Amino acid sequence: MAVSPEPSVQFNPEARIRVDQVGAERQPVVCIDDFLLGAGALREDAVAKKGFDNNTGFYPGLRAAAPGSYYQALQNSLPGLIERVFGIHSGQIASVECSYSLVTTRPDDLHPVQRIPHFDSNRPTELAMIHFLCGPELGGTSFYRHRDTGFEYVDAGRRESFLGALEADAKAGRLPPPGYINGDTDQFKRIASYEAAFNRLLLYRCTSLHSGNIAAGFDFDTDPVKGRLSINTFLLNG
Fold it and tell me: What is the value of pTM for the model shown?
């Protein structure tokens, strides 16, 4: 059987790059519109894949490995920007995880931890990206402040305090009802929001509290053509 060629993608020299300092703690978020040339081929590649699986972690949906050509495009385009904005050089990145991702978990099936904003790691030298391969009608991503602690990010020094505050909320019966957070609640305040846009990439520290904007009436379609398709990437130290 012939092996399908990987999609040909490369950085778009006319991409529009914006760096925001969000919230009171001014954590950087990079927003790049029209990020790659050939982004449509990535969606076609996702449609052709037969390997979308239920995620074993906390991502609320299906995932499949992104192609090596995508990783190469990141490697060719982002190191200088990452060093300027985050002070992280390529030698600090030990591993990269890139996955096609589809939100498919319905609100009633969410674990309590999936109903609130989360951090991906407590290392500020680790970064996360979401590259939208869908339109704005399927929901973007927001960043949040935890009201009781005032935390907008959770590093190693804040982890125990943050988890302790969540545990206190649980004991007091203040767990959120089944559903995705999509705006202000008694526990969290939204401090920044970015719409999805086809070929828009967001880049931020893994410590930042964030969540997808999954609205009431969301369809949870498992078809990459119709669903909330993105490529989620983590740049990790270990």
Answer: 0.95
